[in-house]
């Protein structure tokens, strides 16, 4: 078993190494599932086969020692020590079980927590400025929109419906191995218009108000900042956004991808108009002129949803950013 285990551990290490070096496109959810499954098999083997065999061997050793009864009076204590040491060696868990069955409880806890409750992410880009900054470490609620099976992402409970204004993490439709984070703007059936840097949903302009300019420390410049309110009237979701007044509002044909339901959208020099298909969502970044979002690659299908982002749990550059957000 030790040689088989060495091969299994080497396979995991090779996969992680190739992923780290960029030789392959890794899948952490799949890797964690396989690690849980494999270590779980070893844990069951240890509990119901290997450990009982070691205990039986230790019991036989003690029985044989009692039967001999040849220990001299002056050597009894030493023999007892040797017996205890021999028993300890028999009961000790071998290295290949330490690195498999011994790790199973920790790996299983991480797998369950990450798959069904909360998953941490790090914000890698500025597309959600000013709501989320580069380097923010966030938590995503994995059950808010319904519990999904890990790896295959099949929904098994309904959960709450996606709402306009939610900050949602999803698998990037053109490349599902990547996770993206954007704000939900359009629900199935909505007509979304973004023209001249203003958002309109179903013929109604989304309410906005002027805010003080936002200074982006990475870009070292100020941007026009607005407050915007999405969501139902009974549950408004105010948030901030920024726009770059030096960027044009329209789209060049070369900027637009050939995505599913492309015919549901129309582009011109002022902006874009889309009718959101059933089972899909239209998402945008809060950094409206620096966000690769639904305006460029289309709609997010329901099966790609990962969860609802709700909290910054750490930012090592600014501890004041820790807290909940909308």
TrEMBL record:
Keywords, alphabetical: Hydrolase, Membrane, Protease, Transmembrane, Transmembrane helix
Gene Ontology annotations of biological process type: signal peptide processing
PROSITE patterns for the chain: SPASE_I_1, SPASE_I_2, SPASE_I_3
Entry-linked Pfam families: Peptidase_S26
Top class in the EC scheme: hydrolase
Membrane-spanning residues: 28-45, 95-117
Chief site of localization: membrane
GO CC annotations, alphabetized: membrane
GO molecular function: serine-type endopeptidase activity; signal peptidase activity
Keyword Transmembrane in record: yes
Cellular compartments annotated: Membrane
EC number(s) on file: 3.4.21.89
Peptidase S26 domain: residues covered: 97-314
Mode of membrane association: Single-pass type II membrane protein
Active-site residues, Swiss-Prot/TrEMBL: 127, 182
UniProt keyword Thylakoid present: no
Catalysed reactions, as listed in the record: Cleavage of hydrophobic, N-terminal signal or leader sequences from secreted and periplasmic proteins
Family note: Belongs to the peptidase S26 family.
Stated name of the protein: Signal peptidase I
Species lineage: Bacteria, Pseudomonadati, Pseudomonadota, Betaproteobacteria, Burkholderiales
């Amino acid at each position: 078993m030790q040689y088989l285990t060495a091969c299994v551990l080497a396979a995991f290490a090779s996969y992680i190494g190739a992923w780290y070096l960029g030789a392959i496109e890794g899948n952490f959810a799949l890797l964690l599932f396989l690690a849980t499954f494999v270590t779980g098999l070893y844990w069951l083997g240890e509990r119901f086969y290997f450990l009982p065999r070691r205990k039986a061997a230790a019991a036989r050793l003690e029985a044989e020692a009692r039967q001999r009864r040849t220990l001299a009076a002056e050597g009894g204590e030493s023999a007892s020590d040797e017996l205890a040491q021999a028993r300890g060696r028999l009961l000790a868990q071998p290295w290949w079980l330490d690195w498999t069955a011994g790790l199973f409880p920790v790996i299983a806890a991480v797998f369950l927590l990450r798959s069904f409750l909360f998953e941490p992410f790090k914000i890698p880009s500025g597309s959600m400025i000013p709501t989320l900054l580069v380097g923010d470490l966030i938590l995503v609620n994995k059950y808010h929109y319904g519990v999904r099976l890990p790896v295959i992402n099949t929904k098994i409970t309904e959960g709450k419906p996606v709402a306009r204004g939610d900050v949602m993490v999803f698998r990037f439709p053109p490349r599902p191995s990547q996770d993206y984070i954007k704000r939900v703007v359009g629900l199935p059936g909505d007509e979304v218009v973004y023209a001249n840097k203003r958002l309109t949903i179903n013929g109604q302009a989304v309410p906005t108000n002027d805010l003080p300019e936002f200074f982006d420390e990475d870009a070292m410049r100020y941007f026009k900042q607005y407050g915007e309110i999405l969501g139902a009237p009974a549950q408004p979701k105010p948030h901030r956004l920024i726009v770059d007044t030096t960027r044009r509002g329209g789209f060049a044909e070369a900027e637009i991808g050939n995505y599913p339901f492309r015919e549901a959208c129309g582009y011109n020099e002022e902006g874009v108009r889309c009718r959101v298909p059933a089972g899909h969502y239209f998402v945008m970044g809060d950094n409206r002129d620096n966000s690769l979002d639904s305006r460029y690659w289309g709609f997010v299908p329901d099966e790609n949803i990962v969860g609802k982002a709700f909290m910054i749990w750490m930012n090592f550059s600014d501890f004041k950013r820790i807290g909940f957000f909308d």
